[in-house]
Amino acid sequence: MTMRGAFLRLLMQEDLNFLLTNRIPRRLATRIVGRIAAIEHPLVARPAVAAWRFFSDVDLSDAETTRFASLRDGFVRRLRPGARVFDADPAVIASPCDAIVGAHGRIEGDRVYQVKGFPYRLGDLIPDAALVERYRDGSFVTLRLTAAMYHRFHAPADLTVEGVTYLSGDCWNVNPIALKRVERLFCRNERAVIETRLDSTSMPMLLVPVAAILVASIRLGFMDTERSLREQGSARVPCTARAAKGDEMGWFEHGSTIIVFVPRGVTLDPALAEGAPIRAGMPLARVSGAAGDAD
């Protein structure tokens, strides 16, 4: 085993990993990393980028460039044209991002699972009772972005964004180790509730990006990207922003999680498997009655 492999294996020991990534001043650590990540001076940026590439084993083979002015530039890198192809079938809801598939399946009334045995209430994640009812008994998919992954997320279908609500919160790590130990973790963390409606069927779909430790901000391209989402406050912001399938919607300034919620009548892709990687554009679910649906 290489020195790097041995070190990473040590870091992933559950008790030590939880201690190092959660039992620290999480907000302070996140602010510090955010400031360091934005520094473009070579004496800071070069070792920061080198450490990121070493510890996360990032693959930059499909990146638009491999030369970054800062660590943040590496996190929010763009890909070469054509690096991600979105399924053209209008009945298919595609994955909005590169991710590891987490908990997914049916919503039991308003009960959702962050991992097996750790449920949370949809109403604790989403502050709108009408939205909760809209997705009751629907389906969900949890998509976890690691530090090494492409951090931008895209429209999973042709859609219109109807509203965005920012919710302030903590910044617990969202890795499987923390999800098994911290109840209602997603409901505790900073997050955004993005309300969308599909152009093909007028079906609603909810995207909930959840921040985590070291995530300096969530940016939404259809809003004011000069400010992070948290700077815009917690009020619901109505929108009429259109996005074609595959259009960029926003990005994290570090890895995190997006939870996708769909109502009854939508079938999750049978190939989804917890712990398996998925790329932006790959099938996530299928909408019955959409144009192009063979059913």
UniProtKB/TrEMBL annotation:
Domain of life assignment: Bacteria
Pathway(s) of this molecule: Lipid metabolism; Phospholipid metabolism; phosphatidylethanolamine biosynthesis
The entry's keywords: Decarboxylase, Lipid biosynthesis, Lipid metabolism, Lyase, Phospholipid biosynthesis, Phospholipid metabolism, Pyruvate, Zymogen
Enzyme class (EC, first level): lyase
Matches recorded under Pfam families: PS_Dcarbxylase (PF02666)
The protein's required cofactors: pyruvate
Record keyword ATP-binding present: no
GO biological processes: phosphatidylethanolamine biosynthetic process
TM region(s), chain numbering: none
Identification of the protein by name: phosphatidylserine decarboxylase
